[in-house]
Design brief:
mainly alpha; 2 domains; globular; disordered C terminus
Amino acid sequence: MRDLLISAIVFGALPLIFRSPWLGIIMFTWLSLMNPHRLAYGFSLNFPFAMIVALTTLVGLLASKEPKKMIWSRETRLLIAFILWMCLTTVFAMYPQFAQIQLEKVLKIQLMILVALILMRSFDRIEALVWISAASIGFYGFKGGIFTVLHGGVYRVQGPPGTFIGGNNELGLAMAMTVPLLYFMRSRVANPGLKTFMTVWVVLTAFAAIGTQSRGALLGMAAMGAFVWINSRNKFFTLVVLAVTATAIANFMPESWYERMGTIKTHDEDKSAQGRVNAWWTSFHLANDRLLGGGFDCWWPPTFAMYAPNPDDAREVHSVVFEVLGEHGYIGLAIFTALGVFTWFSAGWTARRARRMPDIAWVADMMRMVQVSMVAYATAGQFLGLAYFDYYYTLIVIVVATRALVQRRLQGGMPDTEWQQVQPAGLFAGGRLPNFRRLLTGKSP
């Protein structure tokens, strides 16, 4: 039944995607982040839904009257430079057969990211992208939060196997990134019933992130709380809310959770933590020896035999920083870091300008919450190898596209036929469903 439902949704959407290619980005994001086909048990489990949607999107884009202009920015140029550098490191990879496979996966993701930078040309579309991104991961947050509450946090929350978020640590990071986006979505809802539902959704996702028993997710949530408090206008009230929330979670979680989280302080006695440090040193020595790094998927026993302090402990690197450093060298890490830093500053720049425009003041809230999400990624990502996670690059698209809209608006060059603006009330204001005619055509009803 699940197979038929997923197939009906995807194939039923293909004519709409062909007519309005930007919907292909929405569908592709849903398939890539939520991976609904991985929740089925039949033919759809390994069916190439994402590839079909991507091809339909590309054909629809070529056949449509959509502007074919890339949003060029410093972030776009850095992203393209990073893609080209990864292609170069693959040519000289230590394990070419494995590197080539990983490069193909990364290029498929980055192709659609670049297409999104062509198609995300209105506030309506960007907000829809935020909603589908947050809801896709939030789905696991909602049910994972219920699971955590019902079982008292004893069991770990896991993601769908065979995906970026299959493990508890990876899912924990993704849900930590999602909490601020869900909070933004809550601010866009005017209907009291929906606002209550969104509040519950935010809380359950936060519980689910903690319920993964991921130490990285815990650090990410803590860093998010600190960032929100530092940037809050009412620091006392924010501190009270954060303290109450932390106390509630602390009193709820079982002893086993405390034992696992306690290894953050005693990492020198934890074999898992020691293994990660060993892999980080391997990455450092590898980058010092090879300008281009080892290439994708270079974390094999022979690599550790050459570069690791403990050559007998070979494992994944578990850090976005050391993952990029070891696989693509210092130049690759410099590009990757610059991309994140510039995206961060672009979000702040956009938030400050949008705040002065009453009709799009909500854009400032969106940018601030994206920044909070990036804090979670930057913090928890130090302990997880998710450097190529499409969720993170989707956030970059959201920031770059939004900045382009605001910048063009400031310059007074935003024709309504090309850069439609969403009304201040929002897509789901008053509890209404989105106006699909406006979303599909880009025209006012």
